[in-house]
Amino acid sequence: MLTYTIRRLFLSIPTLLFISVVIFLLLQLAPGDPMAQVPLTVPPDVKQKMRDALGLGAPIHVQYWKWLVQFFWIEPQVLIDHWFGTGLAEGKLRVISWQTRSPVMDIVVQRMPQTLWVVGMSYVVGILIALPIGVYSAYKQYSLFDQAGTFVSMIGFSIPPFFSGVLVIVIFSVNLGWFPSIYDTTHVVTDWASFKIQLQQMVMPVMVLALQTTAQISRFMRASMLDNLNQDYVRTARAKGLKESVVVLVHVLRNSMIPIVTVIALGIPSIFGGAIITETLFKVNGIGQLLLTALFANDLPMVMTLTFIFAILIVLFNLIADVLYGILDPRIRYD
Predict the structure, then answer these.
(1) What's the CATH number where 277 sits?
(2) CA-to-CA distance for 187 and 200, rounded, in angstroms?
(3) pLDDT in tens, 115-149
(4) Is residue 187 part of a domain?
(5) Where does residue 306 fall: left (phi above 0), alpha (psi -120 to 50 degrees), or beta otherwise?
(6) Residue-level pLDDT at 34
(7) 3-state class (DSSP) for residue 312
(8) Residue 14, domain member (yes or no)
(9) In the chain, at which end, N or C, are there fewer CB atoms within 10 A of the end residue's CB?
(10) Structural domain of residue 223, as residue ranges?
């Protein structure tokens, strides 16, 4: 397993480099000009100097190499400086946002906690709800509980977040007044009272996002459980006199979790990517909203960096899912 993991890590390097080239070339072909927002009163020579300062006058391959060095060499040095108080990156040019004229990674670090509070919590809540629903729905197939779970899953799949988000705002914020409709990103948790306020403003966006996660994972869990409940090893375990709870929760559940691991692992990068629609509806100043504003402003360094971070996370969690296969199922080996 260790040899397989190391081999996959080395193979991921050319994969990520190829992905970065594709993303960079696609963004270069995108229409728009970052200097379009500059007032018309600015002289052309000043605009040209501004374009040169942003690196817009260099050839494409020079721009790409410059970004590559900044992302893989300078930004890690900045992280080391932050952790150990060194000065490795002092005076070096980092990846700069065209829109804010500040380092991209600093903005990402500022926005990440808000995204993890909302999107990350909704993903955890969705998984904790979906797994027992899927297991019990499969065990009690065609029961009233199973039909209710299927109905809720259909709602979660069918209703888009821009509708369900507005719906919960109208019901729980406008009509009932239970929760705030706008997420206060400046709120700091310092004591129990501030933590309760944080939970109150998280309830509605977490509810909207968790509904989709629950609908997806519970259906996968139910289908996987049904596939394993009819296997020969289950009948053998019951014939040996094992308790039904042991048969279902130990033997069947462990084998059923193998495809679910893929669904959960591949969904984790979406946490760091944020939820663009939900964050926009509830005014959550997170990564999703950051990517949206960067796209509108044609901020190529910001879009390039964010999309490449998502690509790294997808490749990484693909590897984690494959490793977990071998842990959950001893029959799977990568020798």
Answers:
(1) 1.10.3720
(2) 12
(3) 888 888 888 888 899 888 888 888 888 888 888 88
(4) yes
(5) alpha
(6) 59
(7) helix
(8) no
(9) C
(10) 110-296
